[in-house]
Predict the 3D structure of the following.
Amino acid sequence: MPELPEVEVTRRGVAPHVEGRMVSGVALRHTGLRWPFPPALPQLLAGHTVRSTARRGKYLLMLFDHGTLIVHLGMSGHLRVLPRDTPPKKHDHFDLELGQQVLRLSDPRRFGAVLWHAKEEGDIENHLLLRGLGVEPLGDMFDGQWLYRQTRKRSAAIKQVLLAGDIVVGVGNIYASESLFQARINPKTPAHRIGLARYERLAAAIRAILAAAIEQGGSSLRDFIGVNGQSGYFQQNYFTYARTGEPCRICNAPIRQIVQGQRSTFYCPNCQK
Ligand SMILES: [Zn+2]
């Protein structure tokens, strides 16, 4: 599943091909993905220019003067920039045509989304899908203080609080396990029992791990452009994730796997207290 780093790398990859370009057409080859496509999308967008791109959580935003196109990659979606005459394949459900090129969304499982938010509907941050989102982990709002203050009344395990996404976005299953390891916090610890110093470590770990994933993905930017483009699921050298029973890279104790909220958590019982 594309996580925040993949979405950010996708944004950076497609940005030079869409920003400042006028939409010449829209192709809808299905009724919709997770939700129906707005049927009026072709008329809404044709002749309008993509002013800029942005990302909020895992939502990719294309900003026009009269509104915002919201794109979500779902479980299996990816975007590519292709020559306009490239024949669509089976799961290529949506094209944003930009003159000689198309921005094409392929989404085999159709859990993604393409939605339109008109300017008169108000600030995009208040969109139904965006307004409950926590702060951006790489933004100015996010630090140890923020985590500390937001968790004083949260008795759930810190791993699940991170995954909930209402305090900070983008800390998916892999990144939660890895950042808790780096911060030396046991994933089962109730969030309100964790003090400021440990949250400072956790915030720094989350930032570092996500930034590294984005940087690593940036080196494969060209993969987003071209017929064989595969949006990368960045192969990182994990400390805990999917390493059940293998020796901890710090202390050699076997990495443990538990289930929290139906998701696997990986941690070192020795390093993480
Ligand atoms: Zn260890």
Notes: The longest helix spans residues 196-218. The first strand starts at residue 25 and ends at 28.
